[in-house]
Predict the structure.
Amino acid sequence: MENLETSERAAGQDLQAENERLQGRVRELEAELVEVQARANAAVAEWQERAYWLDRWHVDLNALMRKPGAAEFRAGLRAVRSVARFFKRLRRSLSRA
Amino acid sequence: MSGVSAVIPVKDGERYLDELLGALTREGVDEVLVIDSGSQDRSVEIAEAHSAVLLRIDPAEFSHGRTRNLGAERTSGELICFLTQDATPCPGWLAAYREAFTLDERAGVAYGPHLARPDTSPMIARELAEFFASFSPDGGPVVQRAGDPTFLSNVNACYLRACWEQVRFRDMPYSEDQAFGEDALAAGWSKVFCPAAAVLHAHDYPPVEFMRRYFDEYRGLRAAQGHIEPFALAQSAGHVRRSVGADRRWMREQGIGGAEAARWTARSTVHHAGRKVFSALGSRAESLPAPVRRSLSLESRADTGAAPAAAAAAASNGGGTPGGAGAPALPPTTHVQRKLSREVYEVAAHVWANGPAPLLRPAPGAWKRERLRLGMVIPPFNRGSGGHNTLLQIFTRLERRGHVCSIWLADYYGYRNAVWPAVLRREIREYFAPFEGPVYKGFERWQGADVAIATGWDTVHATLQLDACHARAYVVNDHEPEFFASSAEHSLSAETYTYEMHCIAASPWLRNLLVDRYGASAEAFQLGVDHDVYKPRPVERRRDTVIYYARYVTPRRGVPIGLMALAELKKRRPDVRIVLFGTDTVPDASFDYEHLGVLSPEQLSVLYSEATVGLCLSLTNFSLMPKEMLACGLPCVELSGISAESIFGADGGPLELAPLDSNLLADSMQRLLEDEGEWARKSREGIEFVASHTWDQATDEVEAGLRRALREREEQAGLAPHRSAG
């Protein structure tokens, strides 16, 4: 009889310990969720701060770059830029010489 | 499947009729009905030579919908094929239609492609080929159901009699096939596109006739489907350029080059430009004078597309329907195109149908957690909105305390459709408070929250649909049903207090009202004052000036009563200077006054520091403005018996309270103007009283309310002991 009570008490203590462990884990996970959402919010807010003028002028750059000719325009721009850089480097190296 | 009938409406169709009827014989059609509406050529003779059943009708009786219904009624086949007089079935046409009706048990109608004849112009040939290829990328039959394209063409179509009997063609002069396609799919039938059921067909007209035909077609489309062809110069020019380019590519593929290609390029440019213009005109035909409509129409019709049906309806109303003799005819109906993607308060209907989204099972002790995830749902705003200022003052302070905050705009009316989220966020920061978190429009990116916070009646139903929340709370700034006369808005706003959201009310009066009238769980917070702005300014205090917040556009401000009180005061004290502010509209009054319009907080603070008496009335919840006046040392007159006593006590404390009576309100103002001792006492007590009314204190109270909302959830779930009533 005494053994039975002892084992029931032990089982109860085990359950309580498990319960506390699980509650602790829930708290940990909740804290992680808060942290993750805080970071996500900060990232979105930062993006919104940066995108203000795009949003203000209703410019969707992804949609714009999907338009026919956009990729070619960008490639042309890069080509012009690389030529300009080449001449800049050339001028710098000539002035050093 | 037994019996196939073919119905061919004809008028002067001798050019292809013989070829067409020969093809029908070859395909094995059982019954051919030719409906002739006054041919002057050999059409009748050809039909008789092919032993087709001939039905002659008066040309005036012809209508695309009505005449085809007549044809279907006069035939008996289980399948009814409709062809135009210039559409010649290709070999395998009927077998393809027979097969189509075995592909789906709800298949009610099938249609096939129109192939160009050898002499068809390149732009028509290309369009036909590309258009029909788009329905079947792999070249096989395609079953189309509700939600798929509704296109259907009686140039070449085959109907299951049961489907036709249920749906029938609308009695319309044009586009009856498009309307049937839409009606059949809506009625639960499917339609089948059969690439193998092809006909040779092309409408090649001279350029001007083409344009007039497009005018007719798009006028019919407007009547059938409400379609309005968009027209903008730059886009249309781009469309013409792309179409001509496509035609040129097509010509190259077909081996057309040199002078012929150049000639067709010119024709193509005229064709596409004319089509763009005439289709736009056709779909706006009702705006054109009847003679213009007649001259633009290939069929010389002056109606707007819907008129004949309406006229028929009118005729039947007045012409012998049972009980209709002598009754006045109804005017023609006007087709109104759909403008909204949803009804304004559809979100409420969704809640009625499905109930609020289920809340997450609360985590034990979450209400005590230092940092909560808070999602606040706000209605659209303008600069100067007092309610939004209150919300943002508190929410930014919650954010500074470490809570993870986001703002979500519920815009039932689409007021801010043209404003993108980053702009909304900037406006919030500029107009109200430096909120650091993200701002969203709509709820597509909703990510859950510990507490979802509704902030006005027109945010509640949206908030109720948000899932992944532990609790919902409702920050109530005012008793909003009182903003509306008996109306949908009045009823909907009253209903918002019944959804068992924990309410955090902006005064004890409002809290008591929510508890007593709606049985809501509620607590109160006190509106805070920004003491950095609202404080006595170093300006000379005048002894003759009454200022009045005369916001006429806000009925709860009781402006007519305030103006009567000021008129009475002016009669008694003509020397009093009266200044009205708070609205750009200058109200008419029976006395002279000065007007200041809408002022910034800094300007208001100077005005309050300079004036002698403030008058600010609220017929509902107490507002922030009297507190701000008091903070600047300006005694203020308000209405008694409504909500002010719940904040300032029964005698009003530093506030001068008067009943809703213009004479008594004038008495109060006069007393403050003439009794300097009383004025000085009220001024001093006012500053002292509101000193403790800060936004930090308001934030404490709202935060406690949000935690209470979470705790209530835990109590309901049996995870936290219920608090005792004491």
Remarks:
- Residues 258-282 of chain B form the longest helix (25 residues).
- The first strand of chain B starts at residue 4 and ends at 10.
